[in-house]
Amino acid sequence: MAVLNKIRQRSVFLILIIALALFAFVLADVIRSGGFSGKDNSIATVNGEEISREEFARQVEAFQQNMRGSITTTQAVNRVWEQQLNQIIVEEQVEALGIRAEQAQVRQMMRAQMSQNPQFTNEAGMFDENRVKEYVASLKQTSPQMYQQWLSYEEGLSESAAQNIYANMIRTGVGATLTEGKQAYHLQNNTMDLRYVQVPFSSISDDEVEVSKAEIKEYVDSHKAKFETEAARNIQYVIFSEEPSPEDKEEAKASLTGLLEDRVEYNSVSKTNDTIAGFKTTSDDQEFVNSNSDLTQPVTFKFKNQLPKEFADDLFNLEEGEVYGPYEENGYWKLSKLVETKQIPDSIKASHILLGYQGAQAGGSRTEAAAKQLADSLAGVVKANKSKIGELATEFSDDPSAAQNSGDLGYFRPGMMVPTFDDFVLNNNEGTVGVVKTDFGYHVIYIEEQTDREKAVKIATVAREVEATEGTRNKLFNDVTKFEIAASEGDFTEEAKTADYRIRTVRDVKALDENIPGVGQQRRVVQWAFEEEAKVGDVKRFEIPTGYIVAQITAKKKKGLMSPEDASSEVIPILTKQKKAEMIKEKISGTTVDQVAENQNKIVQTANAVNLSSPTLAGAGSEPEVVGAVYALEVGETSKPIVGDKGVYVVELVSKSEAPELDSYKPFAQQETSSRRQMANARAFEALKAKAEIEDNRAKFY
Asked: PpiC domain: from which residue to which, for each copy (predicted)?
């Protein structure tokens, strides 16, 4: 009691202490996240203009909804980002140039978007601007909110029109002169005949060439633009798959086998023991499958080629009532019973009229009794005159596709229709007309044609999925946790080797990547690797759909120039080729292709009708630098050694054929202009983007 009294006396003091502690916690979090600035609420800043996080999120959500879930969140983020970036950068240029869209241009865009909207077309089906004005005036009077939305829509059209003007200005400013058209003509049509010797780079072993780290660094420093890179992470990880144990497989098998025989269960309602029919004795195989199988399949007739290939012979030759299994297929234990054997047609051609009613899947306003009565009436008409079914289907059928095809369902195989429909077309002969009820409604069916009958079997199959039990999952979790702790405290690689776990490595993961090779979409792993407090050597466990992964950060790379180590895979082949070229050139002697061929123990090859537009050498492939160098030679002249893409060449220009001059090169100039304009806007945008000051925070939020 004395202690409680002291607490009461100092309650205000305690509350103050707790409040200060909470404030300190919040303040620390604010400091870690960059203070009280608004930057944490912006996705990015482009040339000083912030992109709101909330608005960006709304656009991403809307984009995903429009794509109906066919893309991931990260893909949607990237698409919306490109749209936003394009809009901001282009709008800046539009504003700087003072481009404005005239009202006529806005109306033209509106006309293009609304020409098919009946609300804004006249009696002749043409777009009527007066109807738009009437609509807008009505909104202004009756719905101020929708009126503001319309004004925003018009403003958006105006901005789009101005951007179109800017895009057209760029395209119009790109073209080709008649002189360039003439050059294009000659590049395509001037040809050369050549004799050459190729000494391939492969003639020198890679072991004979050494590339130092200093040489790689020097090359990278000389080609900085090529080796600029984003911030990246290297990680390594181990996958722990949640797979059933042998004991789990046996347990699933035993569970399935227990369904074979009748069993007695106590009925708590009637206070008696009930006998539950087993798979062998059940009289309703479909209901048994629906109630007991992890895979629910209709019990229908199947031909031998429709049965599982591995078990087709055994299943097809069962006696009626005989059960086959348990057998394992695609992660399931299965029991199959042959219910019935029958001679049925391989395919059927039929027409139908579907009559829906209240409560049926086809819907409709009529009652079930009215639907049944109408179906019987229409069936009577069709029996009297079968050619009438097409006309009646068009008028009455609630199956839109069949109504469009005059009720014709075409040819279909057994099992493609719902069971009761299927039973009717299989159990009756060509020319039969009848009424069948399904979950969709009442069908008037006319069997038009059946192919020759052959043996089919009605198979009922109950399946039990083989999956990891709770005990197996708990053991896996313990193994994962044990490894995570050991790898965090010790050496990740050594711990994995000791436990015989396979280590997978991933290099140069970027901040906005979402896929980890080997496990697919794992955005959480990438986000973790790029957290500010994450350090090289950190280890963390992640759940994946098939189990777990334990990952470790092995390297953090800053944005900037690649290190010699990271660039080595790209630079070493380049420098190796350069060094081999010098070694080959030193070995070459002789002033003619024949002398060089003899000196290098190579054959002289020929290439005819070579042009600069398609610089391909027969027997060597594309070699633009070689063909370009030879074009400057005189006929009969032999080149010095030329370094190409695949080796070093010595080439003799045998002949040169100049294409005849044309009266006008306008078609070629137009062709060049069209080709250049196709990519003009994309290239302009890339140039503006490279110049823009962009602070991209997407990776913090997605």
From this structure: 230-340, 345-449
Per-residue pLDDT at 17:
44
Measured distance CA(216)–CA(564) in Å, rounded: 6
Phi, psi of 639 (to 5 degrees): -80, 160
Last residue of a domain, one of 520, 541, 558: 558
* Letter string b/e over residues 108-117, b meaning 16 or more CB atoms within 10 A of that residue's CB: ebbeeebeee
**Which H or E run includes 78?**
helix 73-97
Instruction: Report the Cα 644 to chain-centroid distance in Å.
Output: 39
Phi and psi dihedrals of 648, rounded to 5? -105, 135
Instruction: Give Cα 55 distance to the centre of its chain.
Output: 25
- The angle subtended at Cα 580 by Cα 579 and Cα 583, nearest 5°, is 90
183 domain residue, yes or no: no
Q: For residue 215, is it within any domain?
A: no
Whether residues 540 and 591 share a domain: the answer is no
Task: Using alpha carbons, list the distances in angstroms from residue 647 to 570, 576, 602, 604, 616.
Answer: 18, 12, 13, 14, 14
Name the DSSP class of 245.
Answer: -
pLDDT (0 to 100) of residue 403: 63
CA–CA separation, 290 vs 299, rounded Å?
10
The pLDDT tens digits for 260-276 are 998 888 777 777 888 88
564 Cα distance to chain centroid: 34
Domain extent for 544:
231-243+470-558
More confident residue, 429 or 15: 429
Strands 621-622 and 616-617: antiparallel
* Together in a domain, 69 and 165: yes
| Cα 685 → chain centroid | 26
Cβ proximity of 73 and 527 under 8 Å: no
Q: How far apart are CA 355 and CA 376, in angstroms?
A: 11
> Mean pLDDT over residues 205-231, rounded?
91
Q: Are 252 and 467 in contact (CB under 8 A)?
A: yes
| pLDDT for residue 112 | 80
Least confident of 78-87, 238-247, 544-553: 78-87
- For 367-392, what is the mean pLDDT? 93
- Pick the closest to residue 446 from 371, 374, 378, 352 (CA basis): 352
Round the CA-based radius of gyration of the chain to a whole number and report it: 39
Residue 148 placed within a domain = yes
Is it the case that residue 9 has pLDDT exceeding 50?
Answer: no
**Where residue 406 falls among pLDDT bands split at 50, 70, 90?**
confident
Q: Which of 499, 533, 524 is nearest to 238 (CA)?
A: 499
| Residues 118-138: tens digit of each pLDDT | 778 877 778 888 888 888 888
Say yes or no: 52 and 166 in one domain.
yes
At 430 the three-state DSSP class reads coil
For strand 433-438 and strand 408-412, is the pairing parallel, antiparallel, or unpaired?
unpaired
Q: How much is the pTM?
A: 0.66
